[in-house]
Design a protein that fits this description.
single chain, 3 helices, 30 strands, elongated
């Protein structure tokens, strides 16, 4: 086996010596009157898309294509196959790169070794600087997308892109087949849909609706209502100043520091909810196969219903529960009654798992 490894390394060395490709950059810049444009549409299948704040009143479009080739002439021919355009149509700005029908992509290692063709790669980058508030629509196959310090409504559709937003303002609607989403410091409504995506969201002012089919979802510091779910992954929510709707089909649910009402639903996984501070909140929690642990305010008042089909119910609020008759008094698997005179509701159900409710 060692002989083959050595042989491959030697062949690679000779191939690299025979063809040492370099990076050649091709740039284009366009400037448009920002006051005459309300919306921007960007189409780029590969590479990178960046949206930043303009220092002036114009929309600046910077295009760079990095080409790896044996010489400048060859690089120029490759670049010519990538058709970049930025054109105004009415009050819309259309930015796109038409890729060649047959373009060079990363080769398998064996193919690259024997052909000596390690590159002939292109990496296009579109950077758009925008003033004021604009509508931005992005369509891509696999280009990474980022935006920072901008005020714009973003509509993103991609098959496989990583998306990163930092200190942005406006409404966001993002739909990915795969790729992760990171949002930090956003002001505005956020709607996210990921088929195979991890979602990481921090410091959001606005309502949030996020779902991933296969991945984890984590939310921290949100002022607004939050709805997050994962079909196959964990869901975590912390420091939510608003209502929370959180669910996972196959994964754990963790939430801490929620000021509003909470709905939590897990099919196969534990649910851990702590520091639920709403005195008359509506707490609806259900787990099919998993334990439930909760912390509610010591001042909670309202209706109490807790039941486990094949598990125990342990609650520190049971001594404060008022029952209509002796038949409704708590058992090891069920508690039904009221606490105080409030209009809150605590409904906790587990099919196969224990329920524990404490006060904080």
């Amino acid at each position: 086996m060692l002989k083959y490894v050595v042989a491959i390394v030697l062949i690679a060395a000779f191939a690299g010596a025979a063809r040492a490709d370099k990076e050649y950059s091709f740039r284009t810049n366009n400037s448009f009157d920002g006051a005459a444009i309300s919306g921007i549409k960007i189409n780029l299948d590969i590479g990178e898309i960046s949206i930043v704040k303009s220092s002036g009143s114009n929309i600046e479009v910077d295009y760079k294509n990095s080409v790896y080739a044996a010489n400048e002439t060859e690089a120029g021919k490759i670049n010519d196959d990538y058709k970049f355009s930025a054109e105004k149509s009415g009050d819309k700005l259309i930015i796109k790169v038409d890729l060649p029908h047959i373009r060079n992509t990363k080769h398998g290692i064996i193919s690259s070794i024997f052909s000596g063709d390690w590159s002939n790669e292109s990496y296009p980058i579109i950077r758009v600087s925008i003033p004021g508030s604009k509508n931005v629509e992005i369509n891509s196959s696999s280009a990474d997308i980022d935006a920072s310090e901008v005020n714009c409504d973003l509509d993103i559709r991609s098959a496989s892109s990583d998306v990163s937003l930092e200190n942005t303002t406006g409404n966001v609607d993002c739909d990915l087949a795969s790729g992760d989403i990171d949002i930090t410091g956003h002001r505005g409504q956020v709607t996210l849909q990921g088929q195979s995506s991890d979602l990481r969201l921090t410091d959001i002012e606005g309502n949030l609706n996020a779902h991933t089919s296969s991945g984890d979802a984590s939310v921290d510091k949100v002022k607004g209502s939050v709805q997050i779910s994962s079909t196959s992954g964990d869901c975590r929510a912390f420091n939510i100043d608003g209502n929370l709707d959180i669910s996972s089909t196959s994964g754990e649910i963790v939430a801490n520091g929620i000021s509003g009402s909470v709905r939590a639903d897990a099919v196969s996984g534990d649910i851990r909810l702590s520091e639920l501070s709403a005195i008359q909140g509506d707490f609806d929690v259900e787990s099919v196969s998993g334990d439930v642990q909760m912390e509610i305010s010591r001042d909670f008042q309202g209706e109490v219903m807790m039941r486990s089909v094949s598990g125990d119910v342990n609650s520190r609020i049971s001594e404060k529960v008022t029952y209509e008759d002796d038949s409704e008094k708590s058992s090891h698997s069920e508690i039904n009654g009221t606490v105080g005179q409030g209009k809150g509701r605590l409904n906790v159900v587990s099919t196969s798992g224990d329920i524990t409710v404490d006060r904080f």
